[in-house]
Amino acid sequence: MASVLKFRTALTKSRKRMPTPRSPVMVALSGGATSSALLRLMSDFQNMELKGSAAEPKYAGLVAGHVDESALFSGYQPTQICDIATALGVECLVARLEDVFTLDSDKDALLELVHATIAPGTSRDHFCVRLTKGDESVSAKERLRALFAGLGSATDKEDMLHTIKSFLLARLARQAQCKLLLLADSATRIAAKLVSLTSRGRGFSLPLEVGAEAPFMGCNDLTVYRPMRDLIMKEVAFFNLWTAQPSVVVPTFTTGAPETASIDRLTEAFVVGLDRDFVSTVPTVCRTVQKLELRPDAKSAAQCIVCHMPAESNAQEWRNRLTVNIAPSQQPQLEQQPDDTLSSFDVTARLCYSCQSMLHFSKPGAMLPAFCVENYRNSVADLRQQIEEFIIE
Fold first, then answer.
1. Number of domains in the chain
2. According to a count of CB atoms within 10 Å of the terminal CB, is the N or C end of the chain lower?
3. Which CATH number do you get for residue 21?
4. Which pLDDT score is estimated for 317?
5. How far is CA 189 from the centre of its chain?
6. Vertex 355, ends 283 and 169: CA angle to 5°?
7. 8 Å CB contact between 267 and 261
8. Does 122 reside within a domain?
9. Which of 323, 354, 302 is nearest to 127 (CA)?
10. Strand locations in the chain, DSSP E?
């Protein structure tokens, strides 16, 4: 089939640039139609016999990685996704969303959002956090649900969910000693992500998030490939129909909601509708995406402590230029904070533009995922000893 040839061509192009072509590979398996098709295609590709002498597997191993979202969404079981991998003879590793609050490193330390201020005309944005050990009586699931309940919109929740899932997938890949992670982003999905990410202020890191191959989550030891980038959703649907490949519908924050419920839903509906009337839309956008290159200053920029993407140094100045200034007498004043927040510190410079927007309407007291502590420790050497002393206490 044409879809199989497109997949193998895209994958082969990536393999030619691989430094270690015999390294293990992990397929991110959400259970959806595209990720299920990707696992089927990879399984067939791995087991395909070569002409001539003895056949040799394309990779040292193939595993599937799934992030269990049942703590937030009911109506599906992770075993349903694992069954898809088991039927193909592929091992499935599972991580739970709430695991981000029970990491082995810095498990007793969390960053609590004290207050966030973004207002037109203000001279400086403020995102202040403090180190806390949290309430031991509160479970990881409760902390996870409280984090998402404290975010302002469905778009913000989708952003945070994507960040957490990406971190857990990277962690699973390292545990399985995989150097490659395959994501099931189809051409339709990539075109929609291009518009969505740009509208959310992620143009600075766009080549990393939609490119054919790039370091994953800012890690040099893990590379992400998108071998489904030449297939539109209609081709994926027909492939699953012809091969009887099963898939699972996992609920989201916008399931059953109108198209305007979030930026992702709106841009996806826009791209699909445009491609229906002009069939060359998606391929044209995807060809343009592959020409994007990371700016030199993005390569050396500090990583955002939330999403691991490059954090542009002039994000605040850019925001101030885009907002309408108001008279100084009318500028909103920061509310007086209680005494126990005096130990808080400003992390604004360590947040990318998009994550600043995501945390804009978040409620004070929200606990950020535990990996934010480690990210901040790595980015600010002066705070390293303070964090270590806090954990020992």
1. 1
2. C
3. 3.40.50.620
4. 66
5. 14
6. 65
7. no
8. yes
9. 354
10. 25-28, 62-68, 91-96, 110-117, 126-132, 180-182, 213-216, 219-225, 345-346
Over residues 281-319, the pLDDT tens digits come to: 898 888 888 888 888 888 888 889 999 998 887 766 666
Residue 331 lies in a domain: no
Span 63-110, pLDDT tens digits: 999 999 999 998 788 899 999 999 999 999 999 999 998 875 545 678
How far is residue 195's CA from residue 175's CA, in Å, rounded to a whole number? 33
Domain membership flag for residue 186? yes
Closest C-alpha among 38, 29, 37 to residue 69: 29
User: In terms of residue numbers, what domain contains 381?
Assistant: 2-324+339-392
The side-by-side arrangement of strands in the sheet containing 345-346 is 110-117, 126-132, 345-346
Q: Residue written as tokens 């072509």?
A: 21
* Whole-structure pTM value: 0.87
In a domain, 201, yes or no: yes
DSSP category for residue 313: T
Q: Which of 391, 380, 351 is nearest to 113 (CA)?
A: 351
Per the listing, tokens 């199989």 go with 4
Q: DSSP labels for 29-40?
A: --SSHHHHHHHH
What's the token pair of residue 32?
């959806």
Q: Which of 62-76, 106-120, 150-164, 233-247 is predicted least confidently? A: 106-120
